[in-house]
Amino acid sequence: VDGMMPYANKKVRQAIAMACNNAVCLELGYANQGEVARNQHVGPMHPAWADVPALPYDPAKALEMITEEGMADFEFEITSIDDDWRRNTTDAVAAQLRDAGFNVKRTIIPGSTFWNDWTKYPFSSTNWNHRPLDTQILGLAYRSGEAWNEAAFSNAEFDALLAEANSIADADARREVMAKLQAIMTDEGVTLQPYWRTVYRHSKPGFV
Fold first, then answer.
1. Which of 40, 135, 140, 154 could form an S-S bond across to 144 if both were Cys, CB 3.0 to 4.6 Å?
2. Which bin fits 68, alpha (ψ -120 to 50), beta or left (φ > 0)?
3. Who contacts 176 (Cβ-Cβ below 8 Å, separation ≥6)?
4. Which pLDDT score is estimated for 208?
5. CB–CB of 80/124 below 8 Å?
6. How far apart are CA 20 and CA 96, in angstroms?
7. Other Cβ atoms within 10 Å of 34 Cβ, number
8. What is the pLDDT of residue 132?
């Protein structure tokens, strides 16, 4: 599809990540109730998380990159569900891209419609609930050919490393492989995963 081709360009994907300050996404999207993430979909709460740096926040360089790739005039349509923090976070992404000089169109869709086509939008936001192991969301959302791989990411080296990581029970040993996986997530600009939400449970003793 012609409209999706810009996202096949790794430099365009990197530029999108570099134009967004993830701390701003957390502040405006979820009132700072969480932790800033690095677009790797593996975090410090996971046992084998590796301390791999994110791409630098550099909106001027981001604009330079999309201009070099002939995408300065391309309209980036960003779709989200009409649902509080997901809508607000996506608004924050759109605003930052506009501030960097990107041409952005925002589309907001009600939940009853959004989930019918959630894997089909060229550029959209979804939420992933927590999985306890570092390899789990990578397997569900980024391994080649998976039903929930909304980014249509397909990378043979990534798939092989993920299989290797899944074969290592010891977290410290697995961390060496996770570092390579997280570096691929960063370098390929696969996802803009700006933060981890803190989820609260309120309870009072005596109530059932």
1. 154
2. alpha
3. 50
4. 80
5. yes
6. 6
7. 18
8. 96
Buried b (16+ CB within 10 A) or exposed e, 55-80: bebebeebbbbbeeeebeebebbbbb
DSSP assignment of the chain? -GGGGGGG-HHHHHHHHHT--HHHHHHHHHTT-EEE--SSS--TTSTT---PPPPP--HHHHHHHHHHTT-TT-EEEEEEESSTHHHHHHHHHHHHHHHHT-EEEEEEE-HHHHTTSTTT-SSB-------SSTTHHHHHHTSTT-TT-TT----HHHHHHHHHHHT---HHHHHHHHHHHHHHHHHHT-----EEE-------TT--
Which H, E and C letters describe 32-71, residue by residue? CCEEECCCCCCCCCCCCCCCCCCCCCCHHHHHHHHHHCCC
Residues with Cβ within 8 Å of residue 159, at least 6 apart in sequence: 143, 144
Task: Specify the pLDDT at position 82.
Answer: 96
Spell out the residues 6+ positions from residue 43 whose beta carbon is closer than 8 angstroms to its own. 35, 37, 49, 196
